[in-house]
Amino acid sequence: MKQSVVVIALFAAVMAALPGFLGDNPYIADILITILMMASLASAWNIVGGYAGQFSFGHAAYFGAGAYTTSILLTTLNPGIPVSIAAGVLVSCVIALLTGTIVFRLRGHYFALASIAVAEIVRLTVLNLDITGGAQGILVTKVSFGSLDLNSKVPFYYAMLFLLLVTLGISALIYRSRTGYYLLAIREDQDAAASLGINLYLFKNIALVISAAIASVAGSIYAVYISFIDTSTVLPLRLSIEIILTTIIGGIGTLWGPVLGAVLLVSLAEALRSNMIGEYLVNTGMVSEGSATGAFLKSNLAHAHVLVYGIITVLCILGLPKGILGFFRRKGEA
Amino acid sequence: MKYMFFVITAAFMLLLALPVQGTGPVKIGFINSITGKEAQIGENLTNGAAMAVDDLKSKGIQIVMVQEDDGGDPKNALAAYEKLVTRDRVIGVVGPYTSASANVVASRADQYQVPLLVPAAAKEEITMKGYKNVFRLNAPADVYSKVLLNTIAPYRPKTIAYVYAATDFGVSTVKTAQLNAAAMGLKEVASEKYQQGQPDYRATLAKIKAIQPDLVFLVSYDADAILLMRQAKEIGLTPNAFLGAGAGYTTAQFASQQDISSLVISATQWTDDVNWPGAADFAVRYKARFGKQPTYHAACTYEAVRIMALSALNSKSPQALCATLKAGSWNGIMGPVRFINYSGYTNQNNHPMLVQQLQSGKYETVYPSQFSRKKLVYPYNR
Amino acid sequence: MLFFQSLISGILIGGVYALAAMGMSLVFGVMNISNFAHGELMMLGMYMAYYLFTLLNIDPFLSLLIIMPLTFVFGYVIEKTMIDRVMDHPSENQILLTVGFGLIMSNSALLAFTSDPKILTTSYSSSSIALPGGISVSIPMLLSFLVTCILTAALYLFLAKSRTGMALRATSQNREAAQLMGINVSRMSAIAFGTGTLLAASAGAMIAQTYYIDPFAGHIFLLKSFTICVLGGLGSVIGAGIGGIIIGLAEAMSSAYLSSDWKDVLVFILFLAILLLRPQGLFGKKGEQ
Question: Comparing B65 with A141, which gets the higher pLDDT?
Answer without folding.
Answer: B65
